[in-house]
Each structure stands twice: as C-alpha cells, then as structure tokens.
Amino acid sequence: MDRVKTSFSIKNLEHLSGIKAHTIRIWEKRYNLFEPERTETNIRLYNLDSLQKLLNVSMLYKNGFKISKIAKMETSEIRDKVHTITIQKSPYDWSLGLFKLSMINFDQRLFTNTFDELMEKMSFGEIYQSIFTPLMIELGVLWQTNSISPSHEHFITSLIKQKIHSLCEKLQENQPRNTDLTFVLYLPDNEIHELGLLYLNYEVLSRGYKSIFLGQSVPTASLLNFQDKSNKMIFVSCFTIEPNNDRVEEYLNQFESEILSNENSELWITGFQTQHIPKPKNHRIRIFDSSVELIKEL
User: Fold this and answer.
1) What is the pLDDT of residue 129?
2) Which of 96, 190, 195, 298 has the fewest C-beta atoms lying within 10 Å of its C-beta?
3) What does the alpha-carbon distance between residue 179 and residue 177 come to, in Å, rounded to a whole number?
C-alpha cells in the first residue's frame, strides 16, 4: 500500500538535496540547522519542513553562501535569498529544485508558477528535453532509493501530462499544414509509460502534421484499422518495458506481416527496449536511439 512520506531519513535527504549525509550531520551539530526526531534505535528522522529548509539551504550553499552565514538567517530570509537567485540564474539552475519541492509538498501552484516562468524564457521542447527529462530520470533514482513514494512520482508526472495535453489541444485547433503524412502514436500491449509518447505527439502537432494519438497498451490487431488509409501512415511507439527483450523480435515480425503490408506505412520506434532490437531488415522499420533523434526526422 502506498503511503505518502512525511518523514525522511538522512540518506533520503542526501538523495533529494545532493548534500552528503556527513555534511548534513555536521551542519546539524555545529549550526543547529535542523532538529530531527529520533527513533528508539537513535536513527534520525526529518519532517517536510526540514527537507524544504535543506533544499533552500543547499541552493544558497551551491551559489556561494557560507553555511555559517546561512545558519544565522531566519527561514523567511533564506526563502527571499533563494527567490533572488532564481531570478538571476538560468532556468536550468533553479527549476529542478523547485519542481522537486512542489512534488514533495504536493504543491500544484508552485509547479504551475515555475512552469509558467520557464515558458516565458524557453520553448516547451527545451523545457521537456533539458529539464523534465533529467527530472524524471532523477525521480526514478529517488523512487528506487525510497526517498520518495509512488504518490510523489504520480503527482509530478500527472502535472506534466496536463501541460502537454493543454498544449496539444491548442495546436489541434488549427488544421494540419502537412497533409501528406499521418502519424499514429501508440504504445504496445501492456506498455503504460506514455509520457514520452505524449511529448512526441506534441512535437508532431507543432510541425503541422495530422496526429492520431492512441495512447497506452494498444494490441497490434487494433492497428489494422489504419491499413486501408490512402495517406502515408507512420506508426510511432516508445518501447520502455514492453515488448520485453525476449519478445521484441517476434513483435516486430508480427507487426511487419500484419500492419506494414501497406506500402504506405512505416514504424518508428524509440525507448529503452530498442537496445535489444537487432537492425531491422525492413527499411520501413526505423529505430531511433532517443526521442531527440526521432524528432529530427519530423
């Protein structure tokens, strides 16, 4: 059963802040920065306020403030200094910390404000590739080390999905400019990791193509509906965990015989599982090492 984390070990704090546990102990002992609770076995446990304070302290520390000076500041002054830094520094330097903070506190307003500020400075493609992608990789590590709960990951992922859906909806208000191609975006059966596919849908639409977004866990047989289309159909998929490396070649052979019988169709694939795919003999099956490489072909 998933429980929302409200207390964190010192290792959790290390993973979330990037500050070594040994350093946190020194700051705690020498400067009284934190007041953790102790378990019966004398293990430190930190609450959400301590985590939030550490994230802010680490930002000041990494930007040249001496810890002895930070320790004398009131919490409100620390927040003000952090806000000043976020204005002066590049988006890459401050946004990841704020997104993590919004996730830990389940703070949708902080997420939205941070995102809106980024959109004033960068394109959505830049935000996704340079900020959201590293963020999701880091969240995977945090989840594996039990530094966050699944609720945190679902929360931040859902907010990112909401932004992509909103941007795609606006793009779909316009008629496609490039009518010679239709992109069908789908995930294979039992594949549910659709964030990357949603982003690819945004990139397809932003270039004026017609997009048919089918989403997660689509059986191959369901794609037979597109065989009789006269336009060139490009099927786009992300293989993250499915089909697994034992089945991926069988899957592609089935897809080729059942779906690519139409000469006007192709299959473009990216995702983690592509490392297990041998070079396809059919030139209409194309493998991309990353979504960035696939986007270059649009």
Assistant:
1) 93
2) 190
3) 6
